[in-house]
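Permease
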Amino acid sequence: MKPSQGKIIGKDLLGLGLLLLFLILFLFSDRVSTSDYAEALPSAWINVNTIFLSIVLEAIPFILLGVFASALIQLYVSEETIKRFLPKNAWVSLVPAAMLGAILPLCECAIVPVVRRLIKKGMPLHVGIVFLVAAPILNPVVFASTYYAFRTNQTILYTRMGLAFVLAIIIGAILYSIFKSRPNQLRSQINVSLANHHVHLDGGEDLKQVKKASVLTQLRNTMYHAVDEFFMMGKYLILGAFIAALFQTFLDRSLLETIGGNEYSSTFVMMVFAYLLSLCSEADAFVASSFGSSFTDASLVAFLVYGPMLDLKNTFMLFAFFKVRFVLIFMVTVTLCVFTAVILLSGWIL
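Structure:
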C-alpha cells in the first residue's frame, strides 16, 4: 500500500468513527440521561453531549443541501460558462467575480480545485482568487444557514455577507497588484494525494463524457459525488462541533469572559478557532452561534468570514495547487484584511 493511500484510508476511517460517535450519542442520549448511569456520569459531559448534538442536528440539513448543489455544479457546469460572464478588464472583473460567488454553492474545500481548473483554462489569477474567497461565504446555502443560526441577531448575517463581498474584492486587488507581472502561480506538478477528493472532473473531455452519459449514470455520478462530499464535510463538522462543545463546557468562564469581552483578543481567538476547526462554511454558523453568549458579535463575524476564506484543510490544498510564495502572501493578506476590517467595524456596526 502506498503512503498516500494509507493517509486516505486513515482519513476515511476517522470520518466513519466520528459519524459512528454521533449516531451513538444521538440514538442513546435520552436513554443514558434518564437511566441510573446518568448519576455516575459527570454533569459536564452530559452538557457536552447536549451542545454537541444540538450543533450537528441543526447543521445537517444545510450540509445535505450544499453537497447536492455542489455535486450538480461540479458535474454539469463548465468552466467556459463561468468565464463567459467575466469582463476582460482586470479591475472591472473583480466585482462580477465576487457576484459570481453568490450563485454557486461551493464550500471552501470544493472551490480550490475548481479555481485551479478555471485558472488553467485562462481565467486571470486575481479573478480566481476573488472567486476563491467569495464563493464559500456568499452562496445561497451559507446565507440560509447563517440566517437560521442567527435568526435573533440578523446584524451578524448581513455583516458577514457584506464584509465578505468587500474583502473579496480588496484581496483580489491586492494580489493583482503583487502578481500582475507574474500571473502564473500554479504548480507545474500537482500532488494528487493532497489535492482532495473533489478533483474528479478535470477537463473538458470529462464534462463531455458526463453530458453523453445516460440519465441513470448521471444520477449515479451525482449521488457518488454528494455522498463522498458529505462524508468529508461531516467528519469536520462533527469534530468542530465536539471541540466547540468541550470549549463551552470546560473552559474557565472567567477566562472566557476576559478573552471574549475584549475586541482585539476575542477577534484573534475566534480567527484561530476558525482556522483550526476547519468547518464547512455551510455549517460553521451553528458552531459560531454556540459562542454567542461568551464572545462579541465582531469576533463571531471574524470567525464566519475568516474560516471559509482560510482554514487548515484548504491550506494544504492551496500548497498542493499553488506555489509556496503565493500561498504565504495569500494567507498573510487574508488574515490582515479580515482582522483589520472586523476591528474597524466593531465600533461602528457591531
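The chain has 18 helices and no strands.
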